[in-house]
Amino acid sequence: MLFFLHSVRNAVIVMIAVPLSIVSTFVGMELLGYTLNLITLLALSLVIGTLIDDAIVVLENIYRHLEMGKNRLQATIDGIREIGLSVVSITMVLVVVFFPVALSDSIISPVIAPFAMVIVISVLISLLVAFTVVPLLTSRFSKLEILDRKTGWSRIIGGFEQGMTAFSNAIQQLLQWSLRRKWITMAIATLLFTGSLILVAGGFIGSEFLNIGDTGECILKVEYPKNYTIEQNNLMTRKIEEAISQKPEVTGIYSTIGGGSGFLVSQSGNNQSEINIKLVDKTRRDISSHLFVKRLENELNETFTDVKVESAVVSLIGGADEAPIQVVFQSSDTDTLMAFAEQMRRQICEIPGANNVSLTIESGNPEVVITPDKEKMARLGLSPEIVGATIYTSFSGNSDSKFQQGNFEYDINVRLDAFNRQSISDVENLTFMNAAGQTVKLKQFASVTEETGTSQLERYGRISSVMLESQVLGRAMGDVGNDVISFLEKTDFPEGVTWLPEGEIKYQEETFGSIGTALLIAIVLAYLIMVALYESFLHPFVVLFSIPLSIIGALLALALTGQALSIFSLLGIIMLVGLVLKNAILVVDFTNHLRREGKNIHDALTQAVQLRLRPIVMTAISTVIGMLPIALSHGTGSEWKSGMGWVLIGGLLSSMLLSLVVVPVVYMIAEQTKALITRHTGKNPERLHQN
């Protein structure tokens, strides 16, 4: 503001809008029941650069009238009167863009609704400040700054103004060229927009539900052979801990033997353990926690051959990064279901980026199967009740007996000693007493075999099911998920077996659809708001052409910084719609104002771009600078929001440059088309147009 407005006094008048708008927003947050948290603070930090937009436009126009020789009061009145409609337009457009987001219905609505409403409240308050506090201060304290070339600061400002003049001249030359070659200009803009979309279609920009970021914490799930005791588990886990502690990135290890916290270990057991690893801050290592734990996983699996290690990183909210790729297979025939799910697991392992593909139901657990012969049981004088109760008591125990000591009572569990229940032979030699008092062994009337079976049963919608889970490595989650979905859609399923997506695949599809719908509604509402304000159907349509111009820069910024399309980058694109429309609104509104004064279309467009270049550049640069801390942040978990910052920076810069050229060209084409229709039909195609 100091560079653009030349004095501390004028800069302070503009910047006073920031604390007034933010502090006043706290009142609205309290009324809506919101708290200061990651999401609401992100909204406030994003909107800082936007809060001064209205004040900039108002003050810049008042300053222009001061340069005409008017006194402070008259310059303020005339400046507000001339620019008032534009200021209301650019603010209301941003408001109606975020209202659909706040009302969208998806799994993350509780997250994005406060984000959207905080922005709506703050920009409405900034509009109020621009129409009350800013005029009040300018009418009393603003002054025309006369630069003295002798001072160092004046020389700096003079150099800056020379740069602005050179930039303005370059834009004017480009505009004149474009107005003479309208269709070539439109073809170039179309090619740029198409090229930006190809970045997404060609895989240069991936997609993901949410980038959890690098929190410096990760988890290993360690699974040993089924026959491991808790003592063997503990001994082997200590060896793995020693191997992990040798890594310079590791600062702490915490292990749970015989189970886990529930993040990765689905059930407790003597053959499972969970190891939590704390890493040094990401600024002190040259590898992300995600890549570190994947390399560690591969290394441990190679070193300890009898051990199966799986890994995940801890998200910003403290939970483990659950498998983002989840597919549920369902069937009433459990054997067919498990066989087919295992087949799918092996084939999905071949998809690039799919890592640690597994099933939630493990097969291969050893179990002893007893198949009694009812006829032999009857001849030997045994009943099913006696056989069942004896087997249950021998191996699970009977706790009907109690031991009482003082006021305390303890269960006495009666069962076979561990020595007598170790092998199939022990089961076969289990002894029963028949009604005649004779002893009979189990192998005399039943076959005893050792088989493998599932460790648990799962149901989804009351139907037997198994979930396939996969981590992602080296590619964006959305790209891997799309490949998995495409593969399953082309696969012939056995009769009775069905599938459905779950996890982030499902959430991403639902959320992206909800945000996409909100974006379309926002564009329609923004158009209707401008129709009501301008009493014209045509000129708001011209303004909408600034949206694809901003998408060019937004997608290019994502591609250059290696970011993926996620929830927050899509929210950034929605916010971008409201921000970039203001550039076109300022040009179109002032063009209409000059045409009402009698200028022709060409001269009106040229002068409008020349006079509105400064506030457009001021608002764009101030907003970009406000976004830089978010885009460049390297703190813990900063990755989830940096994509939004880059989307806004890229979109604002491309819109600032292209809107000053393409929007005037579209305006001229629209007006020439309207004149052509009027000349041939004798009727104005735009009924609401008042010119």
SSE blueprint:
Blueprint: H1 2-5, H2 8-15, H3 17-32, H4 38-51, H5 53-67, H6 72-103, H7 109-131, H8 133-141, H9 152-180, H10 182-201, E1 217-223, H11 230-245, E2 250-257, E3 272-279, H12 289-303, E4 308-313, E5 325-330, H13 334-348, E6 354-359, E7 365-372, H14 374-379, H15 384-395, E8 398-405, E9 408-414, H16 424-428, E10 431-433, E11 439-441, E12 446-453, E13 458-460, E14 463-472, H17 477-490, E15 498-502, H18 503-534, H19 538-543, H20 546-561, H21 567-596, H22 601-632, H23 639-681
Antiparallel strand pairs: 1-3, 1-4, 2-3, 5-14, 5-15, 6-14, 7-12, 8-9, 10-11, 13-14
Helix pairs in contact: 2-8, 3-7, 4-7, 4-22, 5-6, 5-7, 5-22, 6-7, 6-8, 6-18, 6-21, 9-10, 9-22, 9-23, 10-20, 10-23, 18-21, 20-21, 20-23, 21-22, 21-23, 22-23
Summarize the model shown.
The chain is an alpha+beta fold and 691 residues long. 60% of the residues lie in helices and 14% in strands.
Distance between the termini: 36 Å
Number of domains: 4
Q: What is the helix content? A: 55-70%
| Level-2 CATH architecture of the largest domain | Up-down Bundle
Specify the CATH homologous superfamily of the largest domain: Multidrug efflux transporter AcrB transmembrane domain
Give the overall pLDDT as a whole number. 82
CATH class value of the largest domain: Mainly Alpha
Question: What overall form do the CA principal axes indicate?
Answer: elongated
